[in-house]
Sequence to fold (98 residues):
Amino acid sequence: MQDEFTVEREDSAGHGRYVIRLPGELEAEMTFRKLGNDVIAIDHTYTPPEFRGQNIAALLMQRTIADARRDGVRIQPICSYAVAQFRRHPDWADLLAQ
Fold:
């Protein structure tokens, strides 16, 4: 089922989001604020209840991590999901903003 989901990135001046468009005009998203040129703060993660348990939030997080590595950006996890994911993935420690 995960192969059916595409993660898109939307950027604005001071913030942005990663989004997966789901059936029924629903969206899963991970939002972030830009804290300077090389740090983002992940401040919100949401998956509609009927799509939970399908690793959709994990797909959003994986894309965020991949983009951060590619772009040389560090991450400050604020929302509980992002904080928990950083705890579960010590291999992401190099991306953690102090």
